[in-house]
């Protein structure tokens, strides 16, 4: 285990560049035993503890002025159970490494988000999700997990455990880092399969008019609306018997790297310097990507590179409220002076049984708004948030929002269940930080 005191340059920053923290020390444990020892030592020293993954949250959920746990030595697959069809993986493993390792074993997760840079524990603890008619978030695919609690002891839980273990399991799958430090996660997996992706432009009004049908007819449906235009780009992913027809190397580079990252980055630089040009850029951008169809293994279809840095807010609203919410968002943008260079991303998830999952007990639609890193985002996000909260929206735990415990107690029926469990597992608030103080209360 390596321990470093954080000196002048010991500042931790997130990927979006909007959160910074100065921990007293950083610890990189190489085993669960070393992690438990680091937690006990922090408690003795009167310091709080936070584990940090790849920093892909836009909130200060991982920030600490105490002990920062870096899990990069706690990585890799521990075991694969082909009878139970599960894989147990160390908490610091990046999703990218997990996806590639599973593919080599002829296995896959059922669903995943649209990037794979995050660690498995960071992604699940904040409720990271993709889009799906029946298949839910990454956390909903968890079958068991292991975590170090406030007294340094190791707790394992699963859907098949004792009553107490089942209560922990219900909460800890999206635990916000509030219940302990996760050390390993067991995921359900299935034999690797093929997905056919169909991407095509579609008018905004048509997508909203036909949304229920598009959702019902596709296993995974999502779309991007380009503000200042009436244009969207839709994506439908469905299981396929094959044959495999991946995006060609040249076409993939041109569309995914040159257009979606290179040209898009340049367009955002122009937009930051000359905001008046953004509506024109948006009209050009929304028409730049042509329709395409390809078939590949899941992680190559679900995920894509995101090299243009941004800040993001995302809310889950009841699925039936999606079209009204989007129309209100569009009307707000049209009558404002905002200049929005990033598309608005729309996805769905079925209801799940996780205490603080954004889809807990309700079929949900997700609306994500983004702004280019370095541009003022507060006014746009505040106006969008006003619309989302009017529909009882639940913000993604790892993305910008201003909600507090009083609000969450209203929109999460089992909120009190989570805070009561936290009182039992971390009575001394060893895993507390300013963000958790706001969202979970004192």
Topology:
Layout (H helix, E strand, L loop, with lengths): L1 E4 L6 E2 L6 E2 L3 E4 L3 H13 L4 E3 L15 E3 L7 E5 L4 E5 L4 H10 L2 E2 L11 H6 L16 E7 L5 E5 L4 H10 L8 E8 L1 E2 L2 E10 H6 L1 H7 L2 E6 L5 E10 L8 H25 L4 H11 L3 E5 L1 H5 L7 E9 L3 H14 L8 E6 L14 E9 L5 H13 L3 E2 L9 H7 L3 H11 L8 H7 L2
Parallel strand pairs: 4-6, 5-6
Antiparallel strand pairs: 1-4, 2-3, 7-8, 8-12, 9-13, 10-11, 10-12, 14-16, 14-17, 15-16, 15-19, 18-20, 18-21, 19-20
The first-to-last residue Cα distance is: 33 Å
Unreliable stretches covering 5 or more consecutive residues = none
Largest sheet report? 8 strands, antiparallel
- The chain-level mean pLDDT equals 92
Number of helices: 14
Rg of Cα set: 21 Å
In short:
By secondary structure, this protein is an alpha+beta fold. It has helices at 32-44, 95-104, 120-125, 163-172, 204-209, 211-217, 249-273, 278-288, 298-302, 322-335, 378-390, 405-411, 415-425, 434-440; strands at residues 2-5, 12-13, 20-21, 25-28, 49-51, 67-69, 77-81, 86-90, 107-108, 142-148, 154-158, 181-188, 190-191, 194-203, 220-225, 231-240, 292-296, 310-318, 344-349, 364-372, 394-395.
How would you describe this structure to a colleague?
This protein is of the alpha+beta class and 442 residues long. It has 14 helices and 21 strands. The chain has helices spanning 32-44, 95-104, 120-125, 163-172, 204-209, 211-217, 249-273, 278-288, 298-302, 322-335, 378-390, 405-411, 415-425, 434-440; strands at 2-5, 12-13, 20-21, 25-28, 49-51, 67-69, 77-81, 86-90, 107-108, 142-148, 154-158, 181-188, 190-191, 194-203, 220-225, 231-240, 292-296, 310-318, 344-349, 364-372, 394-395. A hairpin with a 5-residue loop joins β15 and β16. α7 packs antiparallel against α8 (278-288) and α10 runs antiparallel to α11 (378-390). The longest helix is centred in the middle third of the chain and has 25 residues, at 249-273.
């Amino acid at each position: 285990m390596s321990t470093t005191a954080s000196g002048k340059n010991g500042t931790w920053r997130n990927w979006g560049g909007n959160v910074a923290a100065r921990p007293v020390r950083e610890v990189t444990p190489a085993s669960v035993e070393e992690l438990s020892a680091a937690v006990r030592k922090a408690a003795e020293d009167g310091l709080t503890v936070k584990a940090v993954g790849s920093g892909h949250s836009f909130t200060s959920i991982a920030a600490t002025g105490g002990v920062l746990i870096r899990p990069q030595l706690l990585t890799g697959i521990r075991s694969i159970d082909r009878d139970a069809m599960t894989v147990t993986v160390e908490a610091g493993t990046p999703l990218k490494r997990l996806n590639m390792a599973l593919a080599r074993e002829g296995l896959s997760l059922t669903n995943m988000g649209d990037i794979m840079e995050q660690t498995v524990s960071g992604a699940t603890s904040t409720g990271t999700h993709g889009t799906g008619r029946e298949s839910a978030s990454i956390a909903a695919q968890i079958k068991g997990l292991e975590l170090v609690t406030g007294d340094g002891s190791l707790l394992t839980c699963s859907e098949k455990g004792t009553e107490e273990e089942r209560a922990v399991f219900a909460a800890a799958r999206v635990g916000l880092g509030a219940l302990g430090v996760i050390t390993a996660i067991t995921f359900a997996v299935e034999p690797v399969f093929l997905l056919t992706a169909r991407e095509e432009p579609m008018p905004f009004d048509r997508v909203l008019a036909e949304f229920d049908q598009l959702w019902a007819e596709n296993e995974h449906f999502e779309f991007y609306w380009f503000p200042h235009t009436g244009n969207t780009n839709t994506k439908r992913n469905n299981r396929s018997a094959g044959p495999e027809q991946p995006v060609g190397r040249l076409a993939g580079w041109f569309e995914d790297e040159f257009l979606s990252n290179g040209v898009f980055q340049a367009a955002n630089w122009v937009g930051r310097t000359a905001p008046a040009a953004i509506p024109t850029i948006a009209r050009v951008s929304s028409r730049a990507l042509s329709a395409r169809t390809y078939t590949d293994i899941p992680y190559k279809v679900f995920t894509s590179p995101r090299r243009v840095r941004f800040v993001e807010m995302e809310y889950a609203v009841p699925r039936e409220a999606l079209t009204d919410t989007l129309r209100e968002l569009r009307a707000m943008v049209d009558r404002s002076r905002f200049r929005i260079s990033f598309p608005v991303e729309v996805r769905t998830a079925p209801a799940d049984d996780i205490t603080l999952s954004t889809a807990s007990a309700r079929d949900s639609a997700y609306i994500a708004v983004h702004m280019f890193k370095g541009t003022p985002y507060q006014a746009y996000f505040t106006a969008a948030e006003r619309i989302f909260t009017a529909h009882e929206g639940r913000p993604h735990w790892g993305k910008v929002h201003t909600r507090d415990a009083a609000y969450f107690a209203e929109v999460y029926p089992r909120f009190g269940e989570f805070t009561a469990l936290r009182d039992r597992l971390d009575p001394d608030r060893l895993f507390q930080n300013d963000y958790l103080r706001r969202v979970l209360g004192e």
